[in-house]
Structures are given as structure tokens and as C-alpha cells.
TrEMBL record:
Pfam families (UniProt xref): TatA_B_E
Residue ranges crossing the lipid bilayer per the database entry: none
Superkingdom of origin organism: Archaea
Primary residence: membrane
PANTHER family, alphabetized: SEC-INDEPENDENT PROTEIN TRANSLOCASE PROTEIN TATA
Name of this chain's protein: Sec-independent protein translocase protein TatA
Membrane topology: Single-pass membrane protein
């Protein structure tokens, strides 16, 4: 259908004329006004979703060092337990 018109200017004119015939000249301003509001609401929702995603990413990035620190603390505790067990085993083998 687009190839039938040759360029977008002609297509736009045909669409505007069809809209006027279909909706009537009095309804078009109301239609475009509601369309504009809908586009505005969509953009607003998109911005809010992007902001929320950005906040979630920042919170996740802020949480990562805490998680790594806790993981390192656990590893240190595990190594300390292993060291204590090795010391006990050495003492027991030395006493035998």
C-alpha cells in the first residue's frame, strides 16, 4: 500500500483526508487531544519505569560490596576453624 503512493507526504495527506471523512472535522481535535494525552501518559510511565530500573540497579550495585564482605568474613571463619582443627590434630598426633 505504501508503494502505491510513492512517498510519505502523499500517504499522510490521504490519511488526514480519510480521518476527516471518517471522524468528521469536529471530532478530530478531540481525537488528537486524547491521542496527545495518551502519548504523554505513555512517556511518563516509560520514564517512571526507567527511573525505577535505575534505582534497582544502583541498589543492587550498592549491595554487592556488602555481600562480598560477608562472603569474605565467612571464608575467614571457615579457615580459622580449619586451622584450629589442624592444631588439635597436630597436638593429638604429637601426644600419641
Amino acid at each position: 500500500m505504501i508503494n502505491m503512493f510513492g512517498n510519505w507526504d502523499q500517504l499522510l495527506v490521504v490519511l488526514i483526508v480519510a480521518a476527516i471523512l471518517f471522524f468528521g472535522a469536529t471530532k478530530l481535535p478531540e481525537l488528537f487531544r486524547s491521542l496527545g494525552k495518551s502519548v504523554g501518559e505513555f512517556k511518563k510511565g516509560k520514564m517512571e519505569a526507567e527511573m525505577e530500573l535505575m534505582q534497582m540497579q544502583q541498589a543492587q550495585q550498592a549491595q554487592q560490596p556488602v555481600d562480598k564482605e560477608a562472603e569474605l568474613q565467612k571464608k575467614i571463619q571457615d579457615l580459622q576453624r580449619e586451622l584450629e582443627e589442624l592444631k588439635k590434630q597436630k597436638q593429638q598426633s604429637g601426644q600419641s
